[in-house]
Amino acid sequence: MDGCRRPGQRPERQHAAPLGARGSSGVGRGGAINSTSPGSSCVRSATHSAAGARLNAGKGKTHRAYMWSYCTPSANPVKAVVFEFSETRSGENVRTFLNLDTPSAWKGTLVTDGFSGYAGCVDKGVTSAQCMAHARRKFHELWVNHGSEVGRKALRYFQSLFRIEREIEDKASDERRRIRQRKSRRILAVLHRWLIAQRQLVPQGSATMKAIDYSLKRWTELTRFVGDGDIPISNNWVENQIRPVAMTGS
Predict the structure, then answer these.
(1) Of 44, 63, 138, 234, which sits with the fewest C-beta atoms within 10 Å of its C-beta?
(2) 3-state secondary structure (DSSP) of residue 196
(3) Distance CA 24, CA 96 (A)
(4) Residue 49: what pLDDT?
């Protein structure tokens, strides 16, 4: 079964097929990027950012707008990116874009940050994978801002994981998965045990506790990449696509 169809797409069509046109660049509201090859999994990354003040047409006032970005993973040969503006930060924008409330709902794995608005997509059948770079950032802040030894030691685990990703980024999906199973899974197992142990030692309500809990509460989603060579370890690729546009609009 093809679980990666865009709305209205026939099952045998598995090349890039963006829908046109209203409300976004290249893909209309309710459309979804589709750029898989036979046998590959269906993976998309999504992020959002405040896009600065926008003129409220007809009222002569400005208000904050938000820009959502959807793209294929960096390893996908089809470098497809879609931008969509909205007036709210509600997760309903994502559910509408992916047609999740219709019979032709998009199916696949959505790679995101920890924003709670994406949770509604999971309720509609989308598989969630979350960004390991966001988890790493929590410990980086601990180390830089507080000189935390927990932060420093955690960063060493993340450094090892991202080093593996740099080594395998040009390999085929099956090979990435094989290497992740052999190398990354072991590092993650040690990191998980270490985080649980550290969690018992830190004060309640501390910045260290919050950094550890961020990872532990999302562990399944953060480690989804290990079992699928098409899932990226982080959301950095899509965030790099949205950053220049968001900066220009701010």
Answers:
(1) 63
(2) helix
(3) 13
(4) 59
pTM over 0.85: no
Question: What are 239-242's contacts with CB under 8 Å, separation 24+?
Answer: 239/47, 239/69, 241/69, 241/71, 241/81, 242/47, 242/48, 242/49, 242/67, 242/69, 242/83
Q: How far apart are CA 99 and CA 81, in angstroms?
A: 18
Of 215, 210, 214, 209, the C-alpha closest to 192 is 215
pLDDT at 87: 85
CATH node for 43-130+235-249: 3.30.420
Phi-psi group of 220: left, alpha or beta (phi > 0 → left; psi -120 to 50 → alpha; rest → beta): alpha
Starting from the edge strand earliest in sequence, which strands make up the sheet with 127-130, in order?
81-86, 61-71, 43-56, 109-112, 127-130
d(CA 7, CA 106): 7
For the segment 54-79, what is each residue's pLDDT rounded down to a tens digit? Answer: 545 556 667 778 888 888 888 888 87
| Mean pLDDT for all residues in the chain | 79
Reported as type and span, the H/E element at residue 109 is: strand 109-112
**39: pLDDT confidence band, cut at 50, 70 and 90?**
very low
CA distance 211 to 131: 14
Q: List the alpha helices (DSSP H) in 5-131.
A: 92-97, 119-123
Above pLDDT 90, what percent of the chain? 53
